[in-house]
Amino acid sequence: MSVVSGLVVVGSGAAGVSAAETFRARHPGIPVRILTTDPALPYAKPPLSKDFLCDRDTRLDLHSAQWFDRNRIELIRGVTVRGVDVDRQEVVTAGGRRYPYWHLVVASGSAAVRPPISGIESALTLRSFADAVALKMAARYSDCAVVIGGGLIGCEAASCLAERGVATMIVAAEHVPLQRRFGVEAGERVAKILSDNGVRFAGETTVAAIEGDRVVLGSGETVDADLVVSATGVRPDIRLAETAGLTIRDGRIVVDEHMRTSARNVYAAGDVALAHNVTAGRPIPAEHWRDAAHQGRVAGMTAAGFPAVWDIVPSFSSVIGNAVLRYRGWGAGYERARFVDHHTGFTVWYESGDGDVVGVLTHNADDDYRRAEGILRKR
């Protein structure tokens, strides 16, 4: 049976669903398909480590199955796309099925990176809903856990495990958590937040091996752990883009402010995209849910033939225990970090070499967070 061309989206995360939803709203009669390896209905990922793992009330589904049926968006789950024929404008699945497209949005997201550690295959990750369910079930039968990695996901997951009564330690190469991204002073405050929530932090430490129910540190010391979580970062999944010959830089697909790639009628959005941000005046990696959703909307608008550009200032929040950290800015690059202590929180202003503000991190300092929007846009 022949398949009618239309919009094809690869990936069912925020970027992919936003692109499909936006395109459908403007073209009710053109076929729209989402192809995804995930067997679950499209869901929000940030609540997995912030709420779901902690047993807090949360709504994960982006839309119900009935919503996709009602809007005539064909959601094809549990399928792997192995290639794109940009000349014939077809997407090819691992089973050999071909889906022709008029417009294609690549929103394949990221995959968890596992460090080269002996026994790492026994460690759990926290990237998908299936990962979160497995980790939540394992935590029920665990007394002690080690989280490898002191980034945002590692800190959030560790605080949730501790909240569930699991004695939890974070092991990280940095002196303090989040040091590479946010600096030493912010990291010291996060270490205090973790400690207050019952999480031990072992900095400047590596994991040499995972052996059964214990973790061997680089120093030779062993730590009991009947649960190990690998939270050592993610890597954009650009395999499809590589097979299609799309332009790639710094491990991401190069797109303009309209999310157009180097191939005709092919767009990219979300983690895989290195997009030109109009407000920043330069390419910015998309790192978080809000960025991905907005980029997906831009891709959907552009594919539908309507004007749209990526111009928002990226922002995100992180929940560690009861503490909420908020960031707004252009990413990791900064020359100076100006730490401002408050009675109940703090603000860190990140500045370039010429003194321009390029980002802000706040804890219980919402006025600074709101003010940063105008400062970043002006600069």
TrEMBL record:
Residues 7-282 form the FAD/NAD(P)-binding domain. GO terms for cellular component: cytoplasm. Its cofactor is FAD. One of its GO terms (molecular function) is oxidoreductase activity, acting on NAD(P)H. Pfam families: Pyr_redox_2 (PF07992). Keywords: FAD, Flavoprotein, Oxidoreductase. This is Pyridine nucleotide-disulfide oxidoreductase. It comes from Mycolicibacterium flavescens.
